[in-house]
């Protein structure tokens, strides 16, 4: 493992140890995931890392068409929904889907195989239609 990976692992272990003592586990989980996603706190609000944060999506007219898929219990669902609304206002939202009954990572960290296959097929359909020659 690289030195950066070891540092991330140590930091995650430290946060997880604190989680055992924390009353608000969801907030602590968020810090663990935020650290794993983008270790540098200064970069977490960058528009490419978090397109729906603050004013990041205020001027997205002309952005490529997008399909937004969220999970019902995902802590990022509300942020993704706000981003979908901004895409809609900019004329770039192709479709919005909220997968019911699942959490973030349902496609790789759960037994929701049927819904995962359905969503993969749905996404593949959009990609196929978007890349089909006229």
Automatic annotation (TrEMBL):
It comes from the Bacteria. InterPro entries: AB_hydrolase_3, AB_hydrolase_fold. Residues 29-106 form the Alpha/beta hydrolase fold-3 domain. SUPFAM superfamilies: alpha/beta-Hydrolases. GO terms for molecular function: hydrolase activity. Pfam families: Abhydrolase_3. This is Alpha/beta hydrolase fold-3 domain-containing protein. It comes from Mycolicibacterium litorale.
